[in-house]
From TrEMBL:
It comes from the Bacteria. The keyword ATP-binding applies. Coiled coil: none annotated. The keyword ATP-binding applies. HAMAP family: PanC. This is Pantothenate synthetase. GO terms for cellular component: cytosol. Its EC number is 6.3.2.1.
Amino acid sequence: MTDVVTTVSALRARLSSWRAAGERIALVPTMGALHAGHLALVARARSEVDRVVVSIFVNPTQFAPNEDFATYPRNLDSDLAALQDAADLLYAPQVSEMYPEGAATVVTVGGPAAGLESDARPHFFAGVATVVTKLLIQCAPDIAVFGEKDFQQLAVVRRLVRDLSLPVEIVGGETVRETSGLALSSRNAYFSPADRTRAAALYAALDAAAAEIGDGGNPERAIAVARLQIERAGFAIDYLELRDAETLASSDASEDRPMRLLVAARLSNVRLIDNVGVTKSLRPQAVVASRR
């Protein structure tokens, strides 16, 4: 049975008894409208610790005035039903609990927050960093699990935890996809059936480009081909870029470092983000060199 608390004081009271018993705690922050991707993060958390807390909070500070804060999917009863036997506690604070009247503190992060989402949504990461910092302080978990679908967000959270010396381990959970390859997202609910089918082209193009770059192909050519395929499917692209997987600095694939291909694009007024890792294939010359 998953219990619900809505205030910081009630959350801390529940967590204190678990800590007194020596139990490890995980936090899975979400904005609700839970789907199989969220539940995979909860399962990952459960595999690591004794107790799992899921937070549901549609954070107003990460939405711009022209974005979908008012219409973002919300169904707490359905979310609570999905969490039964999966999480120990649901933390569902109101806006007034997270941002008391007169709140004036904002957390900003540089480094991996620069570019990509920040170019399209300059308000976004200050809102994310502020609410995540508050959740981590309120819950003080041993680990917190974030999805790799929001790869830049994951990098930003890791940086703020490192820079602020917060005593929590940040764990990334793999992206969960539909059979078509489309990454699960709460915003997929906005699609018509026809657009949902077309949306699968985003991942197909991204995956093909990553494979070509990994096999030693020209990154600029691979990205140009992917861009054309995505646009032909009806998307308007915000960005499609190859970045260093750790720092999110621009990458040209010349260095032997993990890379990530990241995209954000809009289809019928629905904005999707996705990313895939780029794994370099073993070069023939490297094989020869290893035998000398």
